[in-house]
Amino acid sequence: MALNFHDLSHSFKDFENHAKKAQELEHKADDKTHEIVRELNHTFIIPFDREDIYKLAQELDDVVDLMENVVSNIFVYGIKTKEPALVEFSDLIKEASQNLTDLSECLRELRYTPRVLELKKKMHDLETEGDKIFRKTISEFFANGHDPLRVIKWKDILEDLERVMDKYQEVGDTIEGIIVKFH
User: How many Å apart are CA 143 and CA 117, to the nearest integer?
Assistant: First the structure.
């Protein structure tokens, strides 16, 4: 999903196909989440607490849902002019996705290492950068007297992007919590 969004934000064309692809990816993520829940209900021995796995699956699903919403809204709202914040957020999301992949590798080891701390700090820094991008862009919209309809559309998109970064940080917190619990 992050790569689809990254491609859309940089190319800023073929909106309908990106929206369709995002919807397909979101449905696959939903299917995977449901599969995880089914497995949790049928598996007797699991490597961590069921609640932790469920929480992690739900948080990851939230990330995908929000990103699908962003891509779909760009298409549905008929956005024709790319805001620099879109590319800035897509770069943050791409980096957060890689960071989350690395943090997931630490989860496999169930050891709290300096690498876990480094990745958690990086996730926090990325989320903070997302907050700054959001505030700066919204402030510019209101300061420069943009068309109100354009402001409403972009505010909606930017709020979802900021929530994506919040969710990435929450997923990182959950992974860290699991590692701490079993360390």
Answer: 39
Amino acid at 173: D
Domain count, the chain: 1
Q: Which domain holds residue 128?
A: 2-182
pTM exceeds 0.70 for this model:
yes
The model's pLDDT over 18-63, given as tens digits with 9 standing for 90+, comes to: 788 888 888 888 888 777 777 766 665 566 777 888 899 899 999 9
* CATH number where 155 lies: 1.20.58.220
Residues 6+ apart with CB under 8 A from 178: 48, 49, 52, 56, 107, 110
Long-range contacts of residues 142-150, Cβ cutoff 8 Å, at least 24 apart: 150/81
Pick the closest to residue 71 from 89, 53, 55, 58 (CA basis).
89
Alpha-carbon distance 89 to 164, whole Å?
9
